[in-house]
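Suppose you are handed only these lines of text.
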Amino acid sequence: MTYTCPYGGRCGGCSLLGVEYSRQLEDKRRALAALLGGAVEPEAVVPAENPLHYRSRLNAAFTLARGRLTAGTYAAHSHRVVETPDCLIESEDCLETLSAVLAALRGFRLRPYDEDRGTGLLRHIQIRCGANTGEIMAVLVTAQGVLPAAKALAAAVRKNAPRVTTLIHNVNPRRTSMVLGGESRALFGPGYIHERIGGLTFRLSPGAFMQVNPEQTEKLYSIVRARSALREGDALLDAYCGVGTIGLYLAGDAGSVTGVELNRAAVRDARENARDNGIANARFVCADATEHLERAAASGGRGPDVIVLDPPRSGATQRFLNAAAALRPRSICYVSCNPETLARDLAALRRLGYKCSSVTPVDMFPMTEHLECVAALERI
Ligand code: SAH
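From them, the structure of the protein bound to S-adenosyl-L-homocysteine can be written out as follows.
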């Protein structure tokens, strides 16, 4: 079975809707194998049971369509906004929430932000759903600090979108393609939501990373558990740890966990998440992962037995990899959302004395070209 995008693919998000799902998986595996260049043969891609409506996070830019306030995604290679209320990969909860919040906002005279002129107020709306908790966050991003009639607006959203558990006002005055600015305050609710993965509950603040496909995340983390092969008493380093998901998921298998993460809000969430889940052997450091590893390597103390890393699309830095190898962990488990930088970094780690024994791809992003992988490496 194949699918047709109701918007003719104008948003540029899902290039594979017209390709049979089993074929998508084979194509992704083949492309990954080519990138790895025979260094290791990747396993079959772990498929998604539900390849549609899986995304638990939605970003939309505000605009006016025939004089009416609305929000949508940017068309491919442009900043023209396309409304996609029946998107095939966003979750029904995200889509329903977007439409309900927009209906509430239309009762107020708020102008969308104009990127070229730098005028107007409303920039983006972000919806995040805790698929396994039912909690929903809506974040309104404005260009200026003052949101007129904020109280009445919050009341209108509560009434129109009763499933939203927290509404947040975020200010982003900068000329940037980043959606969120640094400053957030709750208009109602606690200012964060929770998601439940693998028996643990994770608090998520605006700007803190969480995988967008909850069903596949569970599988991803169980693969990380199997591949990292922790032994009793091991010291685990979870680099690029976000809200602490992987480290906390593995904390019961390890003696101690240290998570390193640059985003301050995510580190705060990670510490709360350890407490909320009754995990006492995990600590979290707010730092650049490379600098943290270099400091650890220079200190000459006991290094980690196992390093898990889960960097952004750009991959790890060469300095990170050098420091990781200098710490001489028994194994390294590399979680990657970009096969190209994964292939580059596996080659670098090979030169540093770490051999890749398996690469397990997981289809976190059906209908799109993206692919997540777990690579296991051992010290030669
Ligand atoms: N492991 C987590 C998050 C992975 S996403 C999970 O599974 O949910 C990558 C994370 O790396 C993000 O949280 C991002 O804020 C963080 N990050 C980006 N650059 C970083 C750096 N230089 N040092 C440390 N963390 C960084």
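What can we learn from it? The mean pLDDT is 97. Residues 21-36 form the longest helix (16 residues).
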